[in-house]
Ribonuclease Z
Amino acid sequence: MKFTILGTGSATPITERRPSAALLDLGNESILLDCGEGTQFQMLKYKVRFSRIKYILITHLHGDHFFGLIALLNTLNNTGRTEPLVLIGPHGLQDIIGVQLRYSLSFLNYTIDYRTTNPGAFEEVFSNEKISISTIPLKHRIPCTGYLISEKPALRKILAERLPPDFPLPYFKMLKEGLDVEHEGKIYANAEYTLAPASPKKVAYCSDTIFDLGIASYVYQADLLYHESTFTKELSARAQMTFHSTAEQAASIAKAAQVKQLIIGHFSSRYKDTSAFLTEAREIFQNTYLSEEGKTFRV
Amino acid sequence: MKFTILGTGSATPITERRPSAALLDLGNESILLDCGEGTQFQMLKYKVRFSRIKYILITHLHGDHFFGLIALLNTLNNTGRTEPLVLIGPHGLQDIIGVQLRYSLSFLNYTIDYRTTNPGAFEEVFSNEKISISTIPLKHRIPCTGYLISEKPALRKILAERLPPDFPLPYFKMLKEGLDVEHEGKIYANAEYTLAPASPKKVAYCSDTIFDLGIASYVYQADLLYHESTFTKELSARAQMTFHSTAEQAASIAKAAQVKQLIIGHFSSRYKDTSAFLTEAREIFQNTYLSEEGKTFRV
C-alpha cells in the first residue's frame, strides 16, 4: 500500500496549502480519504489515476474535508466511468450530492454505493475479500469519524517445486488456506509446503478530533497512522476549544498505539513553517513525518 | 472599472486552467462573476480583496461555474464578514447552499440577499444609485443567464471658479443634474458652468451559450464583452451540439453589438495552445483578447 498526501491545510485557505485529502493506493485500486476543494486538481498535479478510485471516505461535513467531492464525482462521470463507487460518509452527504446533481440536470453513469457512518461507533462499514473499512469514533464539533482500513490476510504461498507433478488441484487450495493435506498415503504438512504471506497491513486516518487517547485502542499497531495536528502545543488551549489536536497529542496517540509510523497534517494557516510540529511530535514518537502535498509514504 | 480573469477553463479539469470565474472591480467594491471550484484560491493567488466583494453573480448550475461558491461563502464568514452579500443566480442555488450549511451546522454571520434569475428574460435584477445589473438570456443545456452590469450616469461636474462666491448651495445640485439656474436676474446656462461626467460604462458577461446573434442587442455598445468560446470554428458542430460557441461566433456578436473590446474564454481542455482562438476571432473583430488567469482589463 502507498499513502499519498494531497492536502495539508485546514479550514482557512492559504495559497501554500490545499485542504484535506489523501490517497491510499491498494495496488490496482485506491481509496480517497476526504476531498477538500480542489482535490481533483491535486490529483491531476500528482498524477493520481482517477479511474482507480474505488472508494471515497469522508470524515465529516466541514467544507475543508468535502467541498471538492461533487466536482470529482462529476469529473469521474465526464471521463466515462461506469464502475460503481463506494462512498462512505456522514448522514447528509447523499442529500448534498443529490441536490446539486438535480439542479444541474446531471445523471451519473455509474452507481454510488452510499454507506452512512455512525459517528459514535467503531464498526465495519465495508468489507470484501481484500479489505475491511471501519469507522473510528472521533470527537469534533460536528459528527465525525476516522477510518481504519485493514487488509484481509492473504493466502499462504505454495512452494510448488516441493510437490509431486500430479498433486491434485483441489489440494492446492487447502494448502493455501493453511491446512495439511493427505495424498496417496502421505501427509503434506502445511508448514513444509507453503510460506506465510506478507502480514496484512492496517492504515488509520483520523481527522478532525480533539485529543482522545481512546483513539489509540482503535488504531493499535497500525502500520501507518495519519492524525491531524492543527496546532503546536503552545496553542493546546485553542486546540481543545476548537476540537482539534496538537502535534504532541497526535504523537502521544501514536506512541500509546505502538503504530509503525505517524503522519501529521491539517496545519493551521497561522503556521508558515511546519518544522516545529515535527520537532514537537518526535520528542514523543520518533517515527513521525510531516504531511507534504504530493508526498507518498510506503506502508 | 477593472475586469480580472480568474478562470479560463471549461468543464474538464486540467492542471493549466481553473474553471470559470471573473472579477469586476468597481472601485471600492467588486462583483464576482461565476465561482468555479478553487476560485477562492485564485483570489488569494491574484490578491483579490475578499472583503470588497459585494455581489456574486452565478450564470448557471453547471459545476464549473459554481462549485467554488460554498467554500468562498464559508471563508467570507470565517474572515469576519458581517456586511450583507448580494447573490444572484438560478433557482436552486439557495437550496444547494442551504443544505450544505445545515449539515455542517454552519451559520453565516452575514446575510445573503438572494435574487433568483429568470432565465428567459432580459431584466434588471439589482439596482442602486451606482449600478444596475440585468440578466441576459442565454441558450444552454440548462437554465442560464449572462449579466449586464451598467453604471448609472454620474452627475455633471461644476466649474466652481466660474460661479460667484455667494452662489446658493441648492443651485449647485440643480447644475449637477444638468439644469439651468436663474440667480439674481442672471441665467446660468448649464453647459457653461458644468462639464459632462465620464460616460457610464457597461460590462457584459456571457457564459455559457450556443451561438445566438440576438445577444448582440442586449450587449449593444458595451465597453467590455466577455463571451465564452469553448471551441474554434473547426468544431462548430460540436459547439452547437453542446450548446457552446466558437471564437468566430463570439467575435460576430462583438462586431454586431459594436462593443469596445471582447474577451474570450472558457476554452475546451482539448486546446493546449489558445492562439488559434485569437487569430480566428480577430479576423472578425480586431479588438479581441484572450482570457488569461490573473490578467486585468481596464474598462
